[in-house]
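Input chain follows. Return structure tokens only.
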Amino acid sequence: MNFSSSGLILDSCVIINLLCSDLFYIFIESYRDIKIAEFVIVKEILPMSEKYSFNLEIPKRKLLVPNEKESEMILELSREIDDGESYSIALAISRGLDLGTDDKKAIRLYESFPNHKKLWNTPELIFRLFGNSNFTLNKQEVLMNIKNKAKFIPSPKNPFYKEWIDILCNN
């Protein structure tokens, strides 16, 4: 699994799951083309930092700020979905980026654009890291952290659901 040549932009739900897994910094530093809307960090992630007990430092090169055309698209999208998802989708569509989100409404909207790139969700990204031989990870601990801290378990319809549950249930 590879990201589109332009890269991948992460939405807040995926960022929270990665932060709770304690893999966020490993992930964003391991893949150079990972981007995040600055708005998502400032308005959605930082206000939750106390709740989730994380210290957030994002390299500036990873942050995206919309241009005027993208800002117009964000306004249009925000009529249908939350602001953070609007930013992430507008930047993904405008700049030819893949999108990382678990939000069902955002997924439907993103996929409605004929020029959308690949869609990624938390389980795909986590299992991508699990498959990276550069890391030794306690898979059960990672998934338990996401389950307990972020309150996230993939839908039974997700292709990684069975493997996710098997890892959680095995000691």
